[in-house]
Write the structure tokens for this entry.
Amino acid sequence: MTSIDTLLVANRGEIARRIFRTARSMGIRCVAVFAAADASAPFVAEADEAIRLPGGYLDQDAIIEAARRTGAGAVHPGYGFLSENADFARAVGQAGMIWVGPEPEAIGAMGDKIAAKRSAVAAGVPVLPSSEDVSQAGGIGYPLLVKASAGGGGKGMRVVDSAASLAEAVASAQREALGGFGDETVFLERYVARARHVEIQILGDAHGQIVHLGERECSIQRRHQKIIEESPSPIVDDAMREAMGSAAVALAKAMNYRSAGTVEFLVDDDSREFFFLEVNTRLQVEHPVTELVTGIDLVREQLRIAAGEALGYGQDDIVFSGHAIEARLYAEDPAAGFLPATGTLTAFAPRAEPEVRWDSGVEAGSTIGTDFDPMLAKVIAHGPTRSEAASRLALALERCHLGGVTTNRDFLAATLRHEAFIAGDTTTDFIARVAPVTAVGSRSLQTAAIAAAMWTQGANRSVDRRWGFAPSNWRNAGLPPTLISFDAGSEGPIDVAYRSARDGVFTLTSGETVTVVDWQDGEVTIEIDRRRHTSRITRTGADLHVQIPGTTITLQQRPRFPLPGMELPTGGLVAPMPGAVIDVRCALGDQVAAGSILVVLEAMKMEHHITAPFDGTVSKLSVKVGDHVDNGQLLLAIDEIDQEQDT
């Protein structure tokens, strides 16, 4: 065995912090590496020492040099970036350091999905029909899936419904795979529309012992990326678990697997047949649900195995308890096709109850940009039953004070509370099929606006050194009530007009009576017609993020004398997020058809298509390939064709 006293984590964000937590509990000193965009990130401040990477997280030479400079005897790659790069794993070993992961040969064999499928066939594990030859698409049949051979996380994946769209899907997947993983190789695979994504966690040591830790179901996905994962799966029984676990262990033994890994399967929801998909030779994003149901710290096991220790337990020693569910909290807009969002996370304050696990890479004040994946946190709940775990997780999400960036929080909570989810009807088409509703009711908006108005009047008085002693809205003449107006996005303006009746009591022109029970900087407790609640409130400029039961509502206080603003041209198409223009498929004066792709943006290593909303003529073109655009920036404008005039 080899002792590890200093560990370099070649990753960032929440996974770096999570590895630090376990490593420190084992008495191991932690070193971080960081790119310029992460200079003020929490994980950098939490490391015992941190080294700036001039070339970013894929700069292998700089990472190994950082390990040398800091005396790190081991390197943990986390997930993503270089975690499944066999050359990097080999280079770490050649530099005299311990690689916390499987052998480079296993990474090379399993990191290539095409080679992994061949290994699965050799081990007797069932696989889906596939082909490396694009011309063989007809033999596979439609719909089919174009998949990147390297990497994961939904990048380089496209569902193709017909031969007419195959070439475009292949080209787009290749570009995305090359940008995300440095390898543009793709292959075709049968697409099973009503399926479940179920994976088996494996652990293997250097002494030949290999076990599995049960399954995780990760079927609820958008853009082929997981957003909710759970263990155990609601459809896997003991016999199926035994069959899938045995297949995973057999494959791991065939390649003498060492460290933590995951064997992924696709399960046909109708027949309950399972098919091999791939092996992830690293820690998975969703590993916490396995930890909570088994009580086994997977990072600790990785470090023990890397140091040469034996697992010390067998398959029969592993005990499963209760149910765990994880939700990935992203900066993204579900209403806009889950497009990533950017901005400053001005409010981020999870509540102490209900007790759940928050694995987060951000804090209040963090900037969410386009350089990296937009995941803010993983929230994991464990309970004696699946329904209790789901309810606990939903409530924890709802009670978190969150603002400044558009997130999928409300969508996650609505999904967890949906009757289809509770029933275990969680196939990969769940989002498209069920479409959980996340609309905020008019009463909730009005309650948030009243709380914001009451907090604002208190905030104004707290800084007014001349008239702050006087009752709010005090006048020595009969004047109109005080009016505060808020914008609530697409809901339009919300007005709150009030008069001060006596100390702490206000009457609204709507007829309601409001009592301010308590006012603090960042919080107000009000009682509306005898119904009391406390709202956390964070103000940034004109924006107020108001916590109400169930969610946080962002309101923008409208100025009393608004200035005229610039109007968007009719038919104008704007950038839905900051990004780089990688393709422009129209020219000024071109006639375009509704649905045709006009501009392709790249943001957060993924492509986003800007399409024509109607038939028309390009009347303005403001960008070219290579331009970097901001959120809301005008890309082009289209004049709609008058169909009646044309005929």
Q: What stands out?
A: The longest strand covers residues 210-222. The chain has five domains: 6-100, 129-190, 198-434, 442-557, 572-646. The chain has a mean pLDDT of 91.
